[in-house]
Amino acid sequence: MTDEKAPLTLQHRFGQVLTRLEQGARQCQRPVPALLAVSKKKPVEDIRTLYRLGQRRFGESYVQEAVDKIQALSDLDIEWHFIGPIQSNKTRTIAEHFQWVHSLEREKIARRLNDQRPADLPPLKVCIQVNIDAEDSKSGVTPQQVLPLAKALKALPRLSLEGLMCIPDATPAPDQTDPFQRLAALAEDLKQAGVPVSTLSMGMSSDLETAIAAGSTLVRVGTALFGAR
Ligand SMILES: *Cc1c(COP(=O)(O)O)cnc(C)c1O
Question: Is 201 in the pocket of ligand 1 (CB under 6 A)?
Fold first, then answer.
């Protein structure tokens, strides 16, 4: 990129997001969540810029684009998170290149990731994606399917169940309770059932404060960091 202002803009936005996280956490006396920088459709130079500023966790949604970036940035100590829909024919690539998967929703996919995780890497950290607002268009399991899938994952030693993830309906019905509170309650149910998880992957650019108030431990932020896609 030849535009010398771009890195400054990114730096400025990064500072704004960190401030939002700190203020959001302070307001409800919660711990500051981890920041996952969602870099899909953004160039590797932007990732390098944020890395130089101290950001280490990056999230990608498209397998081929992600692998190209991971290879181009192999000199950096980045923790890569896969957050997009998973097709069966992409599980090997995901198992080989990522440390985290947030979008697990099918046992069959889980088994493939488990079987294809290279032996020299630690277990792949996974979150179960929950279709918290039961939207037809959204990925994720129903709330009722969370516990059965969580239990099935126990038999897969190359996966490590870390938590739950959701993407709430952007235009919620007025009578609905906070979807982030409902995801947190599901994590509490898992704990009661003897399958405790420590990660609540919830909150994006427009709603991270609400997510933090409900106990988010990791927010996934794209637009507020990198600008519009
Ligand atoms: C794109 C994406 C994000 C980031 O969304 P923004 O609104 O740009 O912050 C977060 N989570 C998932 C799963 C995404 O696909």
Answer: no
